[in-house]
């Protein structure tokens, strides 16, 4: 693996937005003059470079649609040989499956963030109760 | 800004939320970055050497499998640093760092054992649960010392 | 040892190896054998259902990942030559999955499968023999199909305790050598010379030579051997050859000086196997020490044991230290040397049962080989325990050397 300098970091930016496309985000990164590299993946855009520059770019990206763009750090830099499925002998890297699960939840999380920002009160929902015994009896009887 | 340990430790949503509300997530990704860049150690892919499970002895006895102790050598030091914690349950699909149920049980136990503010919540399945999930996490994060309003 | 050409593809079906500090040891062992570890691609959605589909609900997601990868191998989604199933030592949840997956893959795909549980102390050297057997089965199927020895070949088995050599000519053993292993190369030289002298042949008469055992690499290089091969493959082949059970299934148990093997064999090719090697109580050494305490030659221990009743001796431990102490205490309490000898044989056999036979299906015929098979009390005790007739083929103590000579004859040009 190539030597990574101390303050080089990688962030995964996941776009779950109706108004912003991953390519818009990519263009935004290309516009920045910093020494940033990006790699688009199925689930997000990996942004790699010096810490300050990455944080700046990520902040710019977030601001494009704050509640629908999500960011986390990534341990491995993009294309890290030890994690690359071509180099490693196939099979998705283990963290991928979990990322997939979470990405599926992002639209819901985004809508909730919108509501929270708008100050909408939390709707109280009653947890589903266990079926009343008399109702169960009715069901049983009706089946007969 | 509080150091908040998240569980699952590699969660995108939790890491994002903690940062979003002005705190520092203690997450696996940074730990992995740290370890894979350890100078002079070449033990791909994660650079965990036999020393890892030995460092893990601080958190689990020698009779605990090596894979648990190896994982604890990453997670344990994060728990030591934590000033707050968010534990999300029902995260059945998580692999790799979070792939071992025994490690996960121990991780949650060690977080709960600490005298720090902890939020325990389930992953949402419905829109209502999603709202509840976000609101509770947001309020929790705001309640932490020097937690800022949304940036 | 590493074959040129395309690497053998081994599917690594594991949980935790990356976190236990053994991943690089696995990679190291694989690369020494020109093998490549691969991670089967599978349908990600499988992960949600695989537990119920397999019928094994487990808490650890990585174990479900193992099941999904095993399924990908069985269904041919991932093209591999062999499978290595591994998980952490002392994890009960993983042990259940590991054992069931090994059986599942082996039965459904016919691919060679090896299972192993590791600790952070597991090194490439430990993994090498297992992976070597796996790659050999995948790579040298034609060699393993050999049922007759031809030409003049020699086999040398450099074991931890003794070095054995045979010279074979036209499917007959014509010379044998047997010496304690002191200096690996010198002992091998002596053993081979003994065999040559007995055969009335010279070194230059040998057309091909095969080496096996702990010292196989060192002596292989020294003799410029045509075949350098681990003991699992060689002993399986040697056992079914000597017992004349080359077709069909068989189980080979090898009680060596320092470690044991239990191998499930099909048509002379090893399938599942287990290797011991951490407990001296399950080895020939235990019997040697017993003989010493009884003041008899190791060769006489067996006959003594046949006359004894192991039930008359109370043994509190299988351990070579505490178990032997139990035997000595029994002698002090008035037990007969015959009973003590029988108890020692039973102790070793029970240890084999506990350590090795738990993971290998015992299919008849059961062929017992290795030096300890000559101690008559041992096959008797094993037969009593398993309620199976135990076959001890002729030259059973030379099993490795015979297997090596037989396989090496594949290199004799016709």
UniProtKB/TrEMBL annotation, chain A:
Q: Name one Pfam family in it.
A: DUF2102
Tell me what organism the protein belongs to: Methanococcoides seepicolus
NCBIfam families (UniProt xref): methan_mark_6 (TIGR03272)
- Protein name (database record): Methanogenesis marker 6 protein
From TrEMBL, chain B:
Which InterPro entries does the protein's record reference? Methan_mark_5
| A Pfam entry, by short name | DUF2112
* Taxonomy, superkingdom: Archaea
NCBIfam families to which the protein is assigned, alphabetical: methan_mark_5
Stated name of the protein: Methanogenesis marker 5 protein
Species in which this protein is naturally found:
Methanococcoides seepicolus
From TrEMBL, chain C:
Q: What is this protein called?
A: Methanogenesis marker 15 protein
Q: Where is the ATPase BadF/BadG/BcrA/BcrD type domain?
A: 155-408
Q: Which Pfam families match?
A: BcrAD_BadFG
Q: Which InterPro entries does the entry link to? A: ATPase_BadF, ATPase_NBD, CoA_E_activase_dom, Dehydratase_Activator_Redct, Methan_mark_15
Q: Does the keyword Iron apply?
A: yes
Q: Which domain of life is it from?
A: Archaea
| Alphabetized GO MF terms | iron-sulfur cluster binding; metal ion binding
Q: Which UniProt keywords apply?
A: Iron, Iron-sulfur, Metal-binding
In the UniProt record, the signal sequence range is none
Asked whether the keyword Nucleotide-binding is assigned, the reply is no
Q: Which cofactor does it need?
A: [4Fe-4S] cluster
